[in-house]
Amino acid sequence: MRIGELARRAGVSERSLRYYEQQGLLLSERTPGGHRSYGEWAVDRVIRIQALYAAGLGSKKIALLLPCMRDADGGPTERTTGELVEELTAERDRIDRMILDLVRSRDVLDEVIDAATAKA
Amino acid sequence: MRIGELARRAGVSERSLRYYEQQGLLLSERTPGGHRSYGEWAVDRVIRIQALYAAGLGSKKIALLLPCMRDADGGPTERTTGELVEELTAERDRIDRMILDLVRSRDVLDEVIDAATAKA
DNA sequence: GTAGAACTTGACACCGGTGTCAGATTCAAG
DNA sequence: CTTGAATCTGACACCGGTGTCAAGTTCTAC
């Protein structure tokens, strides 16, 4: 499939897909004319990339992490090095804290919403 | 207390505190010489502001939301308008989705970490 | 009074993923 | 062919909370 379809199916812009490729997160075959061409595996990968971005990871960390993930994209599943494990653990802990903060903020919002809704 | 102590106790920079004030999120008394002075309530408020920022809300939304929160700061707890409730509900749903994404990303990280750790 | 820490305002820069525009090229269908 | 849609590369801008520096003022303790 080509970039337009991938963008639509993965729910991101074409701009972002080209950016991901530039960051080394997403490979593409090329047609003789230079247009990008993707296999089915690309959809899942892009969605995963999005999730990691949303989790606050930067391109570099994601680039290190992706090859270590056993996936449907048949990647080589590289050996995770000790140093990387440390970084990933730090990221996981950061995400855990972020989740706690978010839950609290959501509860605060719920409280306000409930108070306003049940003001009957 | 003054800005330095507040910054230390709330875990943010003085820069941020001045910015919050500029955005109308944090009031301060002033000494005759113009230095900011805060009561104890400020610590909780700043922490709450931080949590909302971390949840992806912008200054304007937070400014609308803060007066509606019943708190230890003795704020007037303004009436939440219908329009605001809609916005807040949208924010809450967005945060919910964000939490789900984060949990999934964290689980992915855990998987990679476990795989690398238990490779014995 | 006086020294040094703390505070003031104002300005400039950054980050990094994304939007968007321009101009050129390619693809697919008639 | 030809034509219109799709894609290509490259560049510029944005956002918005925060870091940081500069020059000046205030506070506090001796």
* Helix coverage percent of chain A: 55-70%
Which parts of chain A are unreliable, with pLDDT below 50 for 5 consecutive residues or more? none
- Tell me the number of structural domains of chain A: 2
Oligomer: homodimer
Largest protein interface? A-B, 37 and 37 residues
Strand order of the largest sheet of chain A: 1-2
Number of strands of chain A: 2
What is the name of the CATH architecture of the largest domain in chain A?
A: Orthogonal Bundle
Order of helices and strands of chain A: HHEEHHH
Note the gap between the termini of chain A: 54 Å
The helix tally of chain A amounts to 5
Shape of chain A: flat
CATH topology-level name of the largest domain in chain A: Multidrug-efflux Transporter Regulator, Chain: A, Domain 2
CATH class category label of the largest domain in chain A: Mainly Alpha
Report the sheet with the most strands of chain A, covering strand number, pairing sense and barrel closure.
Answer: 2 strands, antiparallel
Return Rg of chain A in Å: 19 Å
Derived structural class of chain A: mainly alpha
